[in-house]
Specification:
By secondary structure, the chain is mostly helical. The protein has a domain at 269-364. 64% of the residues lie in helices and 2% in strands. It contains 15 helices and two strands. Strands 1-2 form a two-stranded antiparallel sheet. β1 (375-377) and β2 (383-385) form a beta hairpin. α13 packs across α15 (329-366). The radius of gyration is 24 Å and the shape is globular. Keywords: Cytoplasm, Translation regulation.
């Protein structure tokens, strides 16, 4: 079933209900529906396209990818199956790309949204010839033409998405990557010079630089990174609206740069697990508190580990320590990936529960349960005074 973002256009005398039925266009979707907020213009292009059915299915796949981040493989393969169909022409591919970037900019439930959508783009680039250049061109068009219409949160979402795309595709050289890099730097500067600078804006910039700094800080880009760090250090020293904790994050960027933007980022998952285990063993042998700080261990999404993720690693390290066994990198990596998927699914379930609760509260607000005396019924059927 599909989210009713707009009414289907009626053309050639076709009944709207008939068109709805043909496209399985229902009243809701998934977990009470994800309000993706795709633009009306894009929705109309989708519904008028000759591959409207496949585009609707891709929309559902993208929404499910957001609601169920742990099911990336399932939904990405379903989307790839439709986009690689020979009948799925360039105009339909462009609509797909526009869906992706609008979802990335307009959805703020979690940073995994931008990460997974960028991961999907990289996944599709490996199968679709010329898709990368066409995709980057669409992203740059959105950057130039739609960015000014975004609010602060949407600009932060877009910046994070561009950073994730750049990090995943930088090694896949193309004629448009330099222009994309310039757009990324332009967005960073805009966020830092925006009115009402606050913690959230600075934190996004810090995260983006940690993710992309090792690529941006080369050749001509070094001078641009120098300018950004100078500006950030000035903010850390004197800006009254920035908290001490965020100022510390700014200052930590200098250390990241000195360490070549953290060499641990270059390691594979297996190498990371082995490195972290050896670090834990050394410190444990010396009677020190293990320093598996979530600020310096980077997860597969390029972000610092959460406390739950760090606890998972430490628990497995302790098991190996107690059993005096040899670390199997593949097993640890597989278990860690399963753990991340479980955490992501749990977060999605929590967001769904919040959506359901909000909908229930909204409906209750519209209903006058006892307008005469203002009392609410209790579980035992008695009235409770409000």
């Amino acid at each position: 079933m599909f989210t009713p973002y707009m009414e289907l256009p009626v053309s050639n005398g076709t009944d709207a209900d008939t068109m709805n039925a043909e496209l399985n266009y229902g009243n809701n979707f998934g977990y009470y529906g994800l309000q993706a907020n795709l633009s009306p213009a894009l929705c109309e292009r989708m519904l008028c396209n000759e591959r409207a059915k496949e585009l609707q299915e891709i929309q559902v796949g993208l929404e499910q990818l957001i609601l169920e981040p742990g099911e990336f493989e399932t939904w990405s393969n379903a989307i790839r199956e439709r986009t690689t169909n020979p009948l799925f022409k360039i105009d339909a591919l462009k609509i797909t790309v526009e869906m992706i970037i609008q979802l990335a900019a307009f959805t703020s439930s979690s940073q995994t949204v931008q990460y997974n959508l960028a991961k999907l783009c990289s996944f599709l680039c490996s199968d679709l010839h010329t898709f990368q250049d066409d995709m980057i061109a669409s992203f740059l068009c959105f950057h130039e033409e739609q960015r000014s219409n975004l609010n602060d949160q949407q600009r932060k979402n877009l910046l994070l998405f561009f950073a994730e795309i750049y990090e995943k595709l930088e090694s896949k050289k193309s004629s448009k990557m330099q222009a994309f890099e310039n757009a990324l730097l332009e967005q960073i500067k805009e966020v830092l010079t925006a009115d009402r600078l606050d913690d959230s804006k600075v934190k996004v910039v810090v995260e983006v630089l940690k993710l992309t700094g090792r690529y941006l800080d080369t050749d001509e880009g070094t001078s641009k990174i120098n300018e950004l760090l100078t500006q950030l250090n000035a903010i850390a020293k004197a800006h009254p609206a920035i908290s001490d904790s965020v100022k510390e994050q700014i200052l930590s960027l200098n250390t990241w740069r000195e360490n070549k933007w953290d060499a641990l980022n270059f390691l594979t998952n297996e190498e990371k697990a082995a490195t972290e285990f050896q670090q834990y063993r050394r410190e444990n042998d010396q009677g020190l508190t293990p320093s598996c700080s979530s600020s310096f261990i980077i997860g597969p999404d390029g972000q610092p580990l959460t406390e739950e993720e760090r606890a998972f690693l430490e628990e497995n390290f302790r098991k190996l320590d107690n059993n005096d066994t040899i670390l199997d990198n593949d097993d640890v990596s597989d278990e860690y990936d399963e753990f991340l998927s479980a955490v992501a699914n749990e977060e999605a379930k929590k967001r769904v529960a919040e959506m359901e609760l909000a909908e229930i509260e909204k409906q209750m607000a519209k209903t006058n349960l006892d307008g005469r005396n203002g009392n609410l019924p209790t579980e035992t059927g008695k009235n409770m005074a409000t």
